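Write out the bound-state structure for FE2/S2 (inorganic) cluster.
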Amino acid sequence: MKDCKLSINGRNYNVQVEDKWTLLYVLREVLGLMGTKEGCGTSDCGACKVLVDGKAMNSCTLLALKMEDKEITTIEGLGNSDKPHPIQEAFVEAGAVQCGFCTPGMVISTKALLDQKSDPTEEEIREGLSKNLCRCTGYVKIIDAVQLAAKKVKELK
Ligand code: FES
Ligand code: FES
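---
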């Protein structure tokens, strides 16, 4: 085991980790941050996305020890059911949440996208979410949700 210092959702953590432990494993199994989901475990589905220095990345293939000195944001850092982030509100209002398994990763990718482009085109949304898979929705409502989220986030500015 090695010491690992992580900054997650604005809070500093000191954890003991094995060399091969992924960020996803540490988030869920060590820190109990269960909002980030494990789907494929091979960087193919996007369910495990978190923001690393503002960039949406698959935490299932990032080694926890390599995440020192980075700022990590998980879905818990964006909002919760008492105080949802506007992107989370938009997903619910647009009916883009069915089983919900892909939703945290979708919301994280949407946050990264809207931080870069406040008013993305449909094509840019499809491209921004192209690494996030959903088994349930057919994606149409997810595109609607991102468009609604863009509107909501702009209104807050
Ligand atoms: S669980 Fe990480 S990409 Fe699927
Ligand atoms: S809502 Fe079920 S996988 Fe996307």
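---
The beta strands are 2-8, 11-17, 49-52, 55-58, 71-73.
The chain has six helices and five strands.
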